User: What shape does this take?
Amino acid sequence: MSQIQAPSCVGVHQQPLNPFQRLVEDLREMLGQTPRINSADVDVEGLEQLMRNYNSNELDWRKFALADSSTNYTRNLVDQGNGTTELLILVWNPSKGSPVHDHADAHCIMRILKGSIKETRYAWPDKNIPGPLQVTQEETVNEGDVSYMSDQLGLHTIENPDPLETAVSLHLYSPPNAAKDGFSIYSKETGKATPIKQSHYYSKFGKRVLNNAG
Assistant: This one.
């Protein structure tokens, strides 16, 4: 198995890879070397299995889990694969969550590293008839669990239901369409979509991004 090319969370190591670094390398290997991947090329079940098999240890991923109490959550870039993916660690402040959003025709696989996350899914709104979004599913994803989401399943929002403790989740997006082309958020009351050109990173590869740019 070849070494991971920098920049990544792994880089070039003389020491054996820890389980988190091994997960990143295995994800890269499964996704291959082709940078122009599309949704049909993604082996979702294989990626889910890799995420599920990961034996999580906070000491391995803690350096990437940068938090900020002034915002709902932080998006910390861990790896960009071979241009085929975006691997992020999100740190959710207590009782905070995301807006309703789509996934820009990408697959999203989420593994909960710490705490639990409440996911609420919605049906796609009718562009011709404004009105409240319709909830289709609500579930709690607990530590160690893996969840899958795509535009074929609708829209969703994610929140940390714990009023006291932070939650941490690992997200794999492939292809990385939202990072390249943007995505949309949606009003719960009207269903109106607002395009977002770029999702900014709070940190990249364990280092804080100044002014939340990039």
DSSP finds four helices and 13 strands in the chain. Helices lie at 19-31, 44-53, 58-61, 177-181.
